[in-house]
Amino acid sequence: MKITTLIHILLITSLVMLLPLFENSYSTTLFPGTPKSLVINVHTPELKFSSDKLTVIELNVSFMNPLINEATIITPEFFQFSLSKTIKLNKPGSYLLEFFTEEIVEVTVEGVGIYTFTIAIILTLLIIDIILLARNYLLDLEL
């Protein structure tokens, strides 16, 4: 196997490790009587909220429009959840999340889903790897 082919294969496989596959998760601590705001960028239109305690948490979700710099309320004014709740959003983009609770609680926000574009890139790089290996194998047979 030629060293350049090996370097190309290692470079391509290392690029795969840099690509995000799943949505990010965000964690924040809420304090009693203090509203907490969090702006997140969502790629898949589904969010899962979970808390570490069984307590009522009020949540307001607004879509942030970057062009005119205003927020459009998505949820009814402060709907409530405890322990876990999954909501579907209209579309990908930036969202303003506002939390309010009467106890100290840690809330985790997770995007549900995977990046399909990343899977397509990974499959493309995998096919390139296979082609390089096959080419190298055929060149070794000719020698």
| Overall pLDDT level | 78
Largest sheet: 5 strands, antiparallel
Instruction: Please report which band the strand proportion falls in: under 5%, 5-15%, 15-25%, 25-35%, 35-45% or over 45%.
Output: 35-45%
Question: What is the CATH architecture descriptor of the largest domain?
Answer: Sandwich
| Tally of domains | 2
State the helicity in percent bands.
Answer: 25-40%
| DSSP, total strands | 9
CATH class of the largest domain: Mainly Beta
Query: What general form does the structure show?
Result: elongated
Q: Give the oligomer, counting copies of the same chain as homo and different chains as hetero.
A: single chain
CATH fold-type name of the largest domain: Jelly Rolls
Unreliable stretches covering 5 or more consecutive residues:
none
CATH superfamily of the largest domain: Mitogen Ypm
Task: Please tell me how large the radius of gyration is.
Answer: 23 Å
Q: In angstroms, what separates the terminal alpha carbons?
A: 11 Å
One letter per element, helices H and strands E, the order comes to HEEEEEEEEEH
Figure out the total of helices. Answer: 2
Structural class: alpha+beta
